[in-house]
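Appendix C reproduces, verbatim, an entry submitted by the partner laboratory led by Prof. M.T., so that reviewers can inspect both the input and the predicted structure.
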Amino acid sequence: MYIEGRYGLKPRFPATPGFEGVGVVEATGGGLLGWLRKGKRVAVINDRIGNWQERTITSARQVLPVPSDLTDEQAACFFVNPATAVAMTKHVLAVPPGEWLLQSAAGSALGKMIIRLGKTYGYRTINVVRRREQVDELKALGADVVLVESDGPIDEQVRRTLQNDGVRYAIDPVGGVVGTQVIASLGRGGHALLFGLLSGESVTVDPRMLIGGSKRVEGFWLADWAKKQRVRRILRHFREVRSLIRSGALATEIAESFPLERVREAVAFAARPGNTGKVLLRIV
């Protein structure tokens, strides 16, 4: 989506793609934090210069040393999905144990992490998928409820399932009709986070629905959220993410790895519908 110009962050040309990855810090421009990172293997988040290259530059605040027992593959996927999943559910929504969390695109890598986090933190998940064959897969993973988009409006399915006025917590990376129906699924005092636009279409919200039930809908972008947090809180957050990756709760499924010279093939592979894991570039 970034390459096609459909992502929330637009490239300034010439531009190199690649937001996250893993590498070794070879040099620093100065400062205590940079000095502490020098020579370390680190997970990298990079929204400026890009990581699809042999060498890149980023801020010392945007790298995190990773322990030796974390594989390169897991370290390369550290930030975008795992850190986002924990930040949204634990810190922004703060879903209490026993409450219901509704999510669309539940069959995605992040969606599966949300399901596993529910088992870790004690909240229950209602998971929306497009393909019926995903139902059994997600239930085996620990999903409490799985709904299929084609079975009717999501908000109607949610209220029929829970026998109440709707959910208090919801997240949506899809937008369009799905995102609109996720928002409509909110009950009184509900709070929804929109963190993507996979459909490429906008949501439609009736202000009366939000006003009458004291509901909230807001956007979430990990980089913006992280910049507003104090350093100690961010470090605690990333330590927690690291621990959850080790435990398997935030483990990333890897579909395929490609060398850099096969980058076109890698992008085409990643764009195929039905992929069940991340596609990586191995740069050596």
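The mean pLDDT is 92. Additional entries are available on request from the coordinating office.
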